[in-house]
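User: Can you predict the 3D structure of Aminopeptidase N? Sequence below.
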Amino acid sequence: MSVNTAKNRLDYQPPAYVISQVELEFELLPSKTRVLAVSQLRRAEAGATSLWLDGQELQLISLTVNGKDWTTYEQRPDGILLRDLPEQFELCIRTEINPAANTALEGLYLSNGAYCTQCEAEGFRRITFYPDRPDVMAVFTTHIIADANLPFLLSNGNLIARHQLADGRVRVSWHDPFPKPCYLFALVAGDFDELTGSYITKSGRNVALKFYVDKGQQQQAQFALESLQRAMKFDEDVYGLEYDLDIYMVVAVDFFNMGAMENKGLNVFNSKFVLADAQTATDTDYFNIESIIAHEYFHNWTGNRVTCRDWFQLSLKEGLTVFRDQQFSAAMGSATLCRIDAIKTIRTAQFAEDAGPMAHPIRPDVVEEMNNFYTVTVYDKGAEVIRMQHTLLGAAGFRCGMDLYFQRHDGQAVTCDDFVQAMQDANQTDLSAFKRWYSQSGTPELSAILENTATGVRLTLRQQTAPTKDQADKHPLLLPLRYELHDGKGQIQSGLLQFASAEQSFEFTDLQLPVIPVLLADFSAPVKFSYAWQTDELLYLSQHAQDGVARWDAMQQLWSDLVRRSVRDGQLAAIPSGLLDVLGQLIRSPLTDLAFSAELLTLPGFDTLAEQYEQIPVEMILDALESYQQQLATLFNADWLDLYQRLAPAPYRYSEEQTGLRALRNTALRYLLRVTETPDSLWQQQYTGSDNMTDKLAVLQALVRAAHPQAQQMLQQFYLQYGHNVQLFDKHSALLASLGTPQVFALLDQAEQLAQFDWKNPNRVRALYAVFGQQNPAMFHQADGAGYQRLASVIGKADVINPQLASRLVTPLLSFKRFAPARAALMQQALSQLQQQGLSPDLTEKLNKALHD
Ligand code: TRP
Ligand code: ZN
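Assistant: Sure. Here are the predicted structure tokens for Aminopeptidase N:
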């Protein structure tokens, strides 16, 4: 294992040599793949004669410069330093690699017999010696030689040749005319089913769309194909951006570290984000597929045509592309629901990251292992930072900024500063105050006070950001604040404020208190905010705020106030009758937007509530949530039943209307299953009678959450019936791992023994242990520390196989300082034990940060 060395953003140096073209030839064999790389290099830095090439786990066979064996180089564990180089030369390197032994799933590896690559962020160095940095952009030509039993040999760009070789093997050649960094290189070789479609761009070019999936699954790629067509249209309509090659390919693989990868012209996807039909995928799966397909497609412009200068700039492409996929999802369905989803991610995972040892700005300053910085901060807070620019500039201004960004930087590797500069210049405005969002980590806390003055009402805002692990000094940020003011009968004013100092007052003339404010409508800035709303004011807002997000937020606030009071007093606070009235009303006559009604009837989750406490009172939050849900179940039992029965399902189709109906009906089901009077026939009928996985799984989820006596038996039945399908096997694992009773430990043991379980497959491991660590607070935080021990031992095992996987699983243990001393000590102990073992650089970076001050 190599030693970690921190890299600093400010140490950036342009490359000494640039590469105009590279020609790769792969001779594929499972444990001995030969790679030949022929690159054309030219000096870029005056006087430079040496060049660093990254390389890891490579066997060097030969190295020539301008056709001559080159001996003036130094080989190190992580690469080669070439010396005495001329101004311009051809570099020819032969290496041998072992895809069959590659369980890290970085570089070239095998997934169920198919070869595939994953090069972002720094995986290309496991394929050949190369300047593995995004600011070296070259035109790639790729030749693949393989046995005839691998009929599909794919790489970036356009297919330019296919030959049968004398020895029976096949040689194909691909050429990608767009210069690109090596992290966008991809190669796939395997036997697949192919699903083909097409798209005609707005300028009339015909693009072939091709999906490659495991044999027999062709029809399950249909929804993904249609999603791609919708995404292509959206990018043309909203941003004027057209696709630029004649072919767009998507390959689904079962072994994959993340969701998907935007390799130029050849996306590689985790199969769970491609394959869907009514029998195997839920409404949530459909939603995720559509949004991830769009995300990777949108990268073609924001990421590929314009890429990152260095990895500190990752949010340049990821924050922007997440923002774009969120806009797309909002346009395809309910904008409010999409926004609520995004807000939940920020309030749970992102706020937790800010409050823990891995806190970093969306543009980090120091990185040890780049794989550790594909975070909710870089991605999701990054998207919020883009969204705020969109809010400040307006849709038209934002579009002008995007146009200028592409006009200036197409074909370049650039920085976050370049992006903001384009936004600024296109709008003739000054965003310098705003730019602190890129460099400051932590969650700002915003508070507000309203008072009467002689002439009207004064709104005083304060902001403050607590120090984070990485950064002690904090400064005020520019917050775009969408507000509404109500007088109790309706909205009297709304608008957008810009708040950029520690404290500032805004005057509203011709008003008198009482005024009920909505602050941060649409969650217009990613901050925590507080205002002393009265219960009846929140009840009012939950029904009358103009902004849907604000209505939902008012409900969330009511519940979190109740939980807070219960925690403070050590006894359950009574649900105010006004809240019960509003809920009863909603159950009896839901809003036309059924999915939104379901959200309003659902309490905030444990993680959202937890982020509001400096020291997280685990049992108290869980107990309060449990009691409140039980109360709603009992009090409204008849109404829930009535609602459930009124919402009759139609034959399955994935549509906004049907998704909403299922969401609300299954919300009712969840409450119904908490009451013993509910006959088993009700859920049994839904389980056996429904024609889709959404409704079947909802039954199991409801049984598990209600700790229903039949939960385990039904899980077993589900496994026997559906466990042969890997997607459904993972759903079974996830349900099992979220059981909130101590039996979960024995069940996890058993699940690891099942034939379909595989420590080498990240989806299998995550379905059990990302869920256990992140979605089962009761058992993960069990007071004796058994949950911590379990997760730590799994991480130790996973790290040897796949460091990226292990490093992601450790997240819930890192924030031990947020818990009461006894619990924190147990978590810390689990981490320290883990540290006894020789760990990957990935885990080493995180554990060092968590355990040492
Ligand atoms: N760039 C990819 C995306 O956001 C994600 C990604 C980064 C990735 N590193 C990865 C995927 C490693 C798989 C493995 O779409
Ligand atoms: Zn991305």
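The two ends are 24 Å apart (CA to CA). The mean pLDDT is 98.
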